[in-house]
Amino acid sequence: MNLNVFFPENLMIQSIENNEHIILICLKSESKFNHCPLCGMKSHQVHSTYLRKPLDASILNKPVQLRIQAKKFFCLNPNCKRQIFTERFTGFLNAYRRLTIRLEEVFLQLSLSMSAEALSRFLFKLGYKRSGDALLDLLRRIDSTEKDIKNQSLTHIGVDDFSFRRGVDFGTVICDLETHRPVEILASRSTQAFKEWLEKHPSVELVTRDRATTYTKAIHLTNPNIIQVADKWHFLKNLLTVVKETISSRFPKGWFIMPESSITKKTDPATDITITNVNSISSHESLSEKEQAKWALILEIQKVYQQVGSIRQTARQLKLSRTTVAKYIQLSEPPKQIRKPRVNQFVPYLNQITQWCQEGKTARWIHEQLIHQGFKGGASSTRRKVQEIKANLPVKTSEKATEKISKKSSKLLKATKFQLTSFIWRKPTSLTQPELNLLNELFQAHADLSELYTAIQVFRDLVTMGQVFKLSQWLERYATHEIKLLREFCLRMKRDEQSISNALVYPYTNAICEGNVNRIKMIKRQMYGRASFELLRIKVLYS
Ligand SMILES: [Zn+2]
């Protein structure tokens, strides 16, 4: 086989030496002419020959060293500054380089996927001596050659931030939504940085982004006609957080009990725990719903602490902080809540309400009567007041309560907060009958949760089916809802309504950017956190 086929036509193999550590291939240039790299004029006039000794790709794991007898030519253009130029081997070996292009490619691909120092050690074993610095130079060089070419026609991009050091320094990653590739990373996540980038890329028509206002501002400042698409998953996630936190604020951690509800009796230890806790709670009936929940949590912490005997273990098991555990295990009664004094709108009706409570009227019925009498408060505040009053009614009710608890074994309904959140979030068609029953029971006691449920279901359908026309109506309706978190969610959404509508219409999300943010994290780890931004950028863009 003629090995010459692996080299440019004008290079002829003169000899091949197989030495102990290296294969030496001597080549001679036979080119009759060459073009001046400066003015481009063709020249036949040879000035001299000189030797180039680049490394080439290995053969059977042995490094290859070339010895090329190359030519120098005179430039014949009298107006050219270059009088003598060296022969070029386009596509095979660049001027002034110590590696052939094909070997550079291999090193380049390797240095994109490992650290320069590791690669240097690896190559040493293969017989190539390359310092980490030399390999880094290689990386820097691709950037200057490849840059810009692909960014000129970008139209649809995604933008997101990522952190250099967790929570301290942030950068920005910009992705092409068509190719799913990152096209740039910026050293900051400031409005200014993104604005400057946008100005250099006037072809951009659409940007997906999370709800960070810095990017929005940059878009407004550069080109307000750019279509902004908020990230669907972000706002769905925010809404899920509303549900989670609303549930969290009402029920104890890990499990909850709903009074006046029914479920078949179970005799597993978990149920027993629940019953003990019911007793403990009912002995503190003067507490509000929230306080009861907290007290139940405290009892749970104390119980776990008694079992495992260490604060650290308890904290880990219950996913609480150690300070919380340490504080709570010392309490022998419910902590007193310090509340802001509030104007009590019930004052004029107190006697009346107390009487109704004694007569056993329901909160809803009482609320209706109050409204008739000109009461201005909401149904949930009436409900809380009624609960409070009922809890404070002497003997009769608490007898009733204990009686209820003794009958109770069959009247306990139990779900973790996580389950509850999931029941409210999921489509009703995906729930089992007992789960639906549980929700119904829940809603009878908590009317506002029932409304939250409706809100969630409508919103999710509206997002998945792209019903833009329903969005502003939904926002309008719940922006004044009694659940504060829901209200706040609506207000935040309203500030960004246009891009949220766009999210329902356009098939883009910011998932591509988020994928790339994860990739950046991986690359950072591989670089041991000591590489410069410049290198990180090259690795992100070209690997
Ligand atoms: Zn010239």
TrEMBL record:
InterPro entries given in the database record: Transpos_ISL3, Transposase_DDE, Transposase_Znf
Domain Transposase IS204/IS1001/IS1096/IS1165 DDE: 157-359, 400-539
Protein name: Transposase
Source organism (scientific name): Turicibacter faecis
Superkingdom assignment: Bacteria
Residue span(s) of domain Transposase IS204/IS1001/IS1096/IS1165 zinc-finger: 34-76
